[in-house]
Design a protein that fits this description.
7 strands, 11 helices, 41% helix, alpha/beta, 7-stranded mixed β-sheet
């Protein structure tokens, strides 16, 4: 998927999210289930990305924070609720329709730009930056240039967190969705680690296997709306076939699985 196709995909999702929120019908995210067990697993396992970001980056009130690939700014909004930051979180994303969702949130600033454009800015400095489920969209050949640019913009002692998502799919998807995920993430962790080292960072990698839950109806909806880029090139018949297989595989309304993630923390 090239950059224009990627932006078109997320522009469509941004419009759908906006329509859904205007109707008061927001889809539930990971672990937002009604069952008490699901809520306990969600909180106890630390799946809240905002809490992980705050802890691993050691974010404090004086930090200047950037969310690269922010989408609708939900993680950034959660961080502002966890830490009383003196300055707003800068949310950066190439898709205006997604950024618009967070434009009126408290203590959030937005910038429409992709990673390559961000690192070309000469007048920006920050102490903490994170990218959640975004780095697999970066051209592999540009990773070193992007991380070198981030290194030059980071203040001394600054930290970067990269969520690569894991090289293989641990989500409860069908065969074609998992194959596309694995293709887009294959070898990503190693390439990111090498690019960070080449750019002058010191790194530490955390591998997590987190008990998680997903409502089956949300899984079906993700296929119907093609909410993941991994579903983008599937035909309508392939989508329907995959959904039928998933209905057979998952008899319960709530799906329990181990969500594997790789988080790389880099220090300047």
């Amino acid at each position: 998927m090239d950059q224009e196709q990627l932006n078109t995909h997320y522009r469509r999702l941004g419009k759908e999210v906006g329509r859904g929120e205007n109707r008061g019908a927001r889809r539930k995210g990971w672990g937002e289930v009604e069952q008490e067990e699901g809520r306990r697993l969600y909180e106890d396992a630390g799946l809240s990305m905002a809490r992980l970001v705050v802890e691993l980056l050691k974010i404090g009130p004086k930090d200047t924070v950037v969310d690269l690939g922010a989408g609708p700014c939900r993680t950034a909004h959660q961080i502002t609720q966890l830490v009383l930051l003196d300055k707003p979180v800068l949310c950066v994303d190439p898709v205006a329709e997604l950024l618009f969702q967070g434009s009126e949130l408290h203590n959030i600033r937005i910038l429409q730009a992709d990673a390559a454009q961000l690192v070309q800015l000469d007048d920006i400095r920050y102490s903490k930056i994170y990218m959640k489920a975004a780095v697999h969209h970066f051209p592999r050949g540009e990773l070193v240039e992007i991380f070198q640019g981030i290194h030059s913009q980071l203040l001394p002692g600054g930290r970067l967190l990269v969520d690569t998502g894991g090289d293989t799919c641990s989500l409860p998807w069908g065969v074609r969705g998992m194959q596309e995920y694995n293709r887009s993430h294959c070898g990503l962790q190693q390439q990111v680690e090498q690019a960070l080292a080449h750019s002058g960072f010191r790194t530490r990698t955390f591998k997590l296997a987190i008990p998680a839950t997903m409502d089956k109806k949300d899984l079906m909806m993700s296929y119907q709306t093609r909410s993941s880029t991994c579903f983008h090139f599937m035909s309508e018949s392939e989508i329907q076939e995959e959904m039928m297989e998933l209905q057979k595989d998952h008899r319960e309304d709530t799906i329990r699985f181990l969500h594997e993630r790789v988080l790389i923390v880099a220090s300047k």
